[in-house]
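General statements about sequence and structure are easier to judge against a single worked case. For one protein, we set the task of working out the structure tokens from the amino acid sequence alone. The sequence in question and its structure tokens are set out directly beneath this paragraph.
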Amino acid sequence: MIRTAGFGGQSVKQKQQGKISPPQKGLYRIGLGAIRPVMRFWFGLHIKNRATETLEGPAVIVAGHEGLLDFMITALAFPRRRINFVGAEMFFRKPWLGRLLNQLGVIAKIQFYPDVNAVMNMMRVTKSGGTIAIFPAGQTSLCGLPANIDPGIVKLVKKMGVQVFAARIHGSFFTLSRYADGKWCRGGCEVETARVFTAEQLKQASEEEIYEAICRSIDYDEYAWQADRRVKFHGRHRAQGYENAIVFCPKCGGELCYRGEGNRIVCEACGNAATIDAYMTLHPQGSQSKCFPTLKEWFGWQMQKLQAQFAREDFQMQTPIRVELLNEKGELYPAGSGVMKLDRQSLSYEGTLEQQREFRYEVKNAAQAGLMAETGHYFELYHPDFGSMRFYPDDGRKVVKWKLAQEYFYQQNTKNNNKA
């Protein structure tokens, strides 16, 4: 059985149907009241409000997406508005959490797919005078810099035709990153708000001007911010998950060979080790060890090496993989195993799936804007019949390379199409 997907996400059964409601007033206010002292006194949140005084009427808020606290930070930055956030569909899979998110007015969005239902719900909110909050990057940071922002955000805000505000966030990446596995560091966070466009300015601006203004308004470099602020981040797990970000060892050249332990990372191939201090700076452990000063620089170096691999005409990766699917209760269950392959054209799975001994599913890179992934664990693809398919490679550290490769090919395809 062979299935090929273009924009398969459009036909996936949605977790939300019909009209979206504003956040329940009492629940939303109680939630803000509960998180405000935690964020201010425990995580050191400082809010620079330059925009909330002028936020009247329907609006779109665009926000930078560094870490897992960004929803709470953005809500606190605009305390006068009950915001309908746009969140990943995966959070709605557990019934109790889905009910809570619906009560809070969160709009379910399938990541990296054109989701018509989500767009319709956003339009309903702004037409009724509400406020939408979107994270245009669609994913948290991999290295303290923002992910690429798809130009589709321009058409979306143009279609809504309302004023646009921005929330620029700092510190969230160091506090609770995608790698942290719940192990937070206590230090400091900042958010600064600004109005990017009035409705009239948005109407008059070109697509290029809108895209550049949105990107500029939420841009961040966490290590540049930290070099200026010198915030101490206290924690015993600052290296948590770094093995799921690092592909190459700078000493022996080994690939996917690091492990993190406490505030230390070490190469399992050659013993090259480094520690991470309270300013999130890396230091070689011992006179023979080598490392980069920051994860950002390490990531930049490895991206150059990876892109040299990806640029080869004969580039291909493959890995043993196991598959899980979701049942009607939103619970994952083992559904098959096989081999996953990635080349310059597509990402494909070949193996078993439930009762099918010969199953193949292919997704073209040109149609997949990004790879929804939990680095260190799995990545997901959406199937028009089976919904979310979760793939676990034999070594979770492989996930970051697969994610970077697939997104590289999508971006190259987009650039080639723009040139044409």
